[in-house]
Write a structure and sequence with these properties.
By secondary structure, the chain is mainly α. It has 4 helices and 2 strands; from the N terminus they run βαβααα. Helix 2 crosses helix 3. The longest helix has 13 residues, at 55-67. The N and C termini lie far apart (63 Å).
Length: 114
């Protein structure tokens, strides 16, 4: 999914035009790919430019520029706690390279029987 940053209030850093650089459509200015929230606590720094070092600051920025809200510390803490609950582990079997079957030998390439 792609989403515009600064929906309610203008995004402070506007040097990167986002998808506009690819599509050249005005509506794609400041539109960026939205990553999954799974394991978000492990993916710092945050945002398209990596300028935000902490999850707490990322939550504050998103509330401010996407929702037009300034969150209290307790609200930020609650959101961060929920985001951290999305952290999990991936079993090694799931991410292991696939085991390919041995190639079959055709009759034409077999050694003649003696």
């Amino acid at each position: 999914m792609f989403q515009k940053v600064g929906l309610v209030e203008p995004w402070p850093e506007q040097g990167d035009p986002g998808r506009y650089a690819v599509t050249h459509r005005r509506g794609d200015r400041l539109v960026f790919k939205v990553p999954s929230l799974r394991n978000v606590e492990r993916t710092a720094p945050y945002f398209h430019d990596g300028q935000v070092a902490t999850l707490e600051e990322a939550v504050r920025r998103m509330a401010r520029y996407q929702l037009g809200r300034d969150l209290r510390d307790a609200e930020v803490s609650s959101v961060v706690t929920w985001l951290k609950s999305l952290t999990g582990t991936i079993s090694r079997e799931y991410i292991a390279p696939p085991v390919r079957p041995a190639p079959e030998v055709s009759i034409a390439t077999r050694a003649p029987a003696k």
